[in-house]
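Exercise 7.
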Amino acid sequence: MSNQSVQTVNVFGDRLKISLAVVAAIAGVVGFYFLADKPTAMRVGVLVAGLVVALLVAWTSTSGREFIGFAKEAVVETKKVVWPTRKEALQITAIVFGFALIMAIFLWGTDKLLEFLLYNVILGWQK
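Solution. The predicted structure, written as tokens, is:
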């Protein structure tokens, strides 16, 4: 026999926690707008408090902890990215703009050629 523990997942509890987190976040946003006549510091405090409570409640759920793990892994992967230098970025941007210009000219020329063929040659209409 195996001595491995089995973890049961409380789906209802997790959904309840996520729902409470969403309600807390919405309450913070609603409080921010509801207190429009109060000082800005108080309004921002209510908003931040609602968002912090939402994060804390969401963090206690299984899906919240999984999301935090995912976010940490995403930060690690982002640090592995080799970003282009300024010179490389400008060169790539120039190539993209050049290609877009050439494509625009090509499409304009194709449109004018098809317009000429359709109206003047096939239909015989003179513009």
